[in-house]
Automatic annotation (TrEMBL):
The chain crosses the membrane at residues 178-200. It comes from the Eukaryota. Gene3D superfamilies: Death Domain, Fas, Hepatocyte Growth Factor. This is DED domain-containing protein. GO terms for biological process: regulation of apoptotic process.
């Protein structure tokens, strides 16, 4: 078995020595070396995922377990630390018992210097001075025969043998065919080198790449930090939950506590995601840093709000509330189509009226400010040019007939007046008699509203529960 297999088996054994309290203390001690969502899981499976993360980040391996020895010692799990120390000592002794190839070659070289004389005699031949190599010989002077001719393995000869292949390569070709073969071999080697380089650069990376879907979600990935909130829901609902949660720009889903959606805030991109070995995890973005306005670098979320921006003028009203409530407050305020939140003067939500688009927003230079729209022009009536607000009202429109009653009141209370009036299902407000709310009855839809040339008029529908 491999060293890594034995080391992992030992780590499994050490888990039998740890209690849940020990696991809690170990996860706390490891701190930022592991993701936060793993620190909160003191189960055996959670600790095994912690160890797998340490393997992935090259903090531990079968050659180096000092990190775990130190960690177990500090949480007073001495038996676990002792087992790892014994493994380390045994592994070190096995390594010292292995001889390197260089030691074996040096030993063989020493043995070769012991020239034997029990070899069949051969005729002695004198080599030219310039080509003769040093030899160890036993010469029989009476018979003029050599009893042995062996190469002396001195330093010069060993050097010559070692680099003999280099001399063969650099030897000048003696014919045209040899030149052609040499040039062809060089070109083939260059082509192979280029092919290997291109393959590893574009196709052969051993690191897995995150594959993103059209919805900006991916499997086996996550985002570090910037936690906003978490909720236990199925994986397929995590993206929608993040889109509906104010300030949530990205998320990570894990199997923690039978499925947890970790919603996160802040501007990130796909490059900020990291790869995991858990195929059940999922990560995604509701703002992929590409949906910003073409006229500025404001980055809009899918819920039509952004950081570091504002809208000028057209103030409707203001209220002192936390920033996460400003969008909801605008949606519930009649006539509010967009807003700006700022921490100046004590966290003020400035609700604004009038038709605007994202191009009307400006950058403030402060990340703490917030702006958004509750009418993004995307909820248009398919049967007319009317642009409906998310609270089911629109400008410059009217409903014909079905009058229930009318009352002279300003434009803002008209929708509430209809909602409080029994049988009133829809309404029209005009500036007739300094402002008249025409309440109407019967079932209608947005398709029945007709456009008018009166820019001050509004119409709307009251959704009543049955």
């Amino acid at each position: 078995m491999s060293g890594q297999f034995d080391f992992r088996a030992l780590l499994l054994k050490t888990q039998e020595l740890l209690s849940d309290t020990d696991r809690h203390r170990l996860h706390f001690l490891l701190g930022d070396d592991i993701p936060k969502y793993l620190r909160d899981d003191p189960s055996l499976a959670g600790t095994l995922r912690v160890l797998e993360t340490l393997f992935d980040r090259s903090i531990i391996n079968d050659q180096d377990c000092d990190y775990l020895v130190d960690a177990f010692s500090k949480i007073q799990c001495n038996d676990a630390a002792k087992r790892l120390k014994e493994y380390k000592q045994a592994h070190g002794q096995n390594s010292r018992q292995k001889f390197s190839l260089e030691d074996i070659l040096l030993q063989d070289s020493d043995d070769d210097k012991m020239c034997t004389t029990e070899i069949t005699p051969v005729t002695f031949r004198i080599l030219p001075t310039e080509t003769r190599a040093p030899t160890c010989t036993n010469v029989n002077l009476e018979s003029e025969e050599v009893s042995s001719i062996l190469p002396c393995h001195n330093e010069t000869t060993v050097y010559n043998y070692k680099y003999q292949w280099i001399n063969l390569i650099l030897k000048r070709p003696s014919s045209t065919c040899a030149w052609i073969l040499l040039i062809s071999a060089i070109l083939i080697l260059i082509s192979l080198a280029l092919t290997v380089y291109i393959w590893f650069k574009y196709f052969g990376s051993t690191e897995k790449k995150i594959i993103w879907t059209k919805n900006n979600t991916a499997k086996s990935c996550g985002f570090h930090g910037n936690d906003l909130s978490s909720v236990q829901i199925p994986k397929e609902l995590c993206l929608k939950k993040c889109e509906e949660t104010f300030e949530c720009t990205h998320f990570t889903w894990t199997e923690h506590y039978s499925g947890t959606c970790w919603m996160k805030k802040g501007l990130v991109s796909k490059n900020d995601a990291f790869q995991t070995n858990d195929s059940t995890t999922m990560c995604g973005l509701t703002n992929d840093c590409r949906s910003g306005s073409t006229s500025s670098s404001i980055r809009w979320s899918r819920s039509d709000w952004a950081q570091g921006c504002g809208f000028r003028e057209n103030d409707l009203s203001n209220v002192q509330i936390p920033k996460e409530h400003c969008l909801k407050k605008c949606e519930n305020t009649f006539g509010c189509t967009h807003f700006t939140w700022t921490e100046h003067f004590g966290s003020i939500c400035w609700m604004k009226k009038g038709l605007v688009s994202k191009n009307d927003a400006f950058q403030t230079g402060y990340d703490s400010t917030l702006c958004g729209m509750v009418n993004d022009y995307s909820l248009e009536n398919t049967g007319s040019s009317l642009r409906w607000h998310r609270n089911d009202w629109a400008k410059s429109c009217d409903f014909c007939g079905s009058n229930l009653l009318n009352v002279q009141i300003p434009i803002e209370p008209c929708v509430n007046k209809c909602a409080e009036t029994s049988e009133c299902t829809h309404f029209t407000w005009t500036n007739h008699n300094n402002g008249t709310c025409w309440m109407k009855k019967g079932l209608v839809s947005k398709n029945q509203a007709i456009p008018t040339y009166d820019s001050s008029a509004i119409c709307g529908i009251i959704e009543r529960t049955r």
